[in-house]
Amino acid sequence: MPTREISGASFVIVGTFNPAIFHPAWLAAQELIPPSEATDAKNIIVTSDLSVIQLPWVRMQVTTDRFIATTTHDSHFNTLRDLVSGAFEVLRHTPIRQLGINVEQHYKFESEETWNAFGHRLAPKKIWKQMFRDPGMRAMTIVEKAGRTDGLPGLYRVDVEASVKVKLGVYFRVNDHYELQPKSGEPVGTSELLPLISKNNFGESLKRAQGMIDLLINYDGN
Amino acid sequence: METDVEFSGTAPRGNVFANETDLRAGPSRLVASLESVKARLTETFTTEKSDEKGRTAHRPLSSAPQLEEEWFATMNTAEVVWPSMTLPPLEDEHEQFVALHQWEGYVVDLNEKTFTAKLIDVAEGGTREDGEFDLKQVSNDDLPLLKRGAVFYWSIGYHTDTARRRRTVSELRFRRLPPLNHDEIATARKAAQTILTELGHR
């Protein structure tokens, strides 16, 4: 069986932000991160247009229209959720338009044969062999056109690519996307956002993403 | 694929930051450092670029990370149908942790050396377990959070450091939430009082 080598999650929130506020010292003052992590934060850029913060387990990047928080520690997915949820509980009047909860994973296959076979199962090569001698799948994106199963505006998207991080690896990305703009077109506040990143909803999102990835990994072509 | 310009939207690397050393070195060093930051940011977040054939590619400032080849590869797309909600790349230099087992727990009791907790196995469908932990396992920063009822996450897994060395680790991390404000405390008290009243408590 393929083994999971890298596992990450992120929140991508589109809205209107004040990047300058996202500083490690502010996060520590709000009791969202330990004081020592604020002190040890690396590669900090905090300006009125851009904030980039690197902590040992999370990276935050905030521009005036986008907030991204990413972790590659899958032990810290809930900690990431607490951090993002906590930050927007404090910044409760922030206008929000879109939310993406993303799961990224790299799996390593046992051999080149099983690695290629996986690509062939997802993208059968019959048609491609009429134009290429040895066609190989590099990337595939599938979107749920029927919308979200919970009826909320948004969709699910899955990307599968040859991993550039892991030799004989396959990279998966599951995007759980919410549109938060009501019909009026005006962005909403965090009161609409926070339930979507609640512990339960986030847990469901992770579970759904892992289910999709497991389904693909275990797909035998039938 | 190679890229000579970093389009990843990530923090510029190297010694271009206004750091503590710059601050101590005085204004001239700081100004030089900030100029360097500005140059790198301009390069990193440029939104328009031309190739050798004179074609121009436009990229939203906040678009997904793209290598140069991929950027130009999108030029034939008549319409961008998907908002750029994809991630910055998982970066090589980052430390990584892949959990083999995870629990969420809350503190039931504690003494001078240990604390006991109720645990829910996150991976195994919510199996409930009891656990006892040595206080030495708790990070100094988390000790003030160690109280009855405190929620924590416990993970066992393999940690890969920036040198790609892997080791198996156990990590406890206590949950952090912003402090409640007066309104939230008042609302919680009112809700608690309502429940007490419904239970017949006066």
Would you give an account of this structure?
The complex is a heterodimer of chains A (222) and B (202). With 222 residues, chain A is of the alpha+beta class. Chain A is 29% helix and 32% strand. Chain A has helices at residues 24-29, 35-40, 77-90, 112-122, 190-196, 199-218; strands spanning 3-15, 42-46, 50-54, 59-63, 66-71, 96-108, 139-143, 154-162, 169-179. The model of chain A has no long low-confidence stretch (mean pLDDT 92). By secondary structure, chain B is of the alpha+beta class. Helices cover 23% and strands 28% of the residues of chain B. Chain B contains four helices and seven strands. In chain B, strand 6 and strand 7 form a beta hairpin. The radius of gyration of chain B is 26 Å and the shape is extended. Residues 1-26 and 58-90 of chain B have low confidence and may be disordered. Chains A and B meet through strand 1, helix 2, strand 2, strand 3 and strand 4 of A and strand 3 and strand 6 of B.
- Please tally the helical runs of chain A, counting DSSP H or I stretches of 4 or more residues: 6
Residue share in helix of chain A: 25-40%
* Helical content of chain B (DSSP H or I, runs of 4+): 10-25%
Estimate the strand proportion of chain B: 25-35%
Inertia-based shape of chain B: extended
- The overall pLDDT average of chain A reads 92
- Count of β-strands of chain B: 7
Oligomeric composition of the shown chains: heterodimer
Separation, N- and C-terminal Cα atoms of chain A: 18 Å
Which structural class matches the secondary elements of chain B? alpha+beta
What is the tally of helical segments of chain B? Answer: 4
Largest beta sheet: strand ordering of chain A: 2-3-4-5-1-6-9-8-7
Number of strands of chain A: 9
Order of helices and strands of chain A: EHHEEEEHEHEEEHH
Largest interface: A-B, 55 and 42 residues
Kindly report the spatial arrangement of strands forming the biggest sheet of chain B: 5-4-3-6-7
What would you report as the Rg of chain A, rounded to the nearest angstrom? 19 Å
Secondary-structure element series of chain B: HHEEHEEEEEH
- What about the largest sheet of chain A? 9 strands, antiparallel
* Gap between N and C termini of chain B: 72 Å
Give the overall average pLDDT of chain B.
Answer: 69
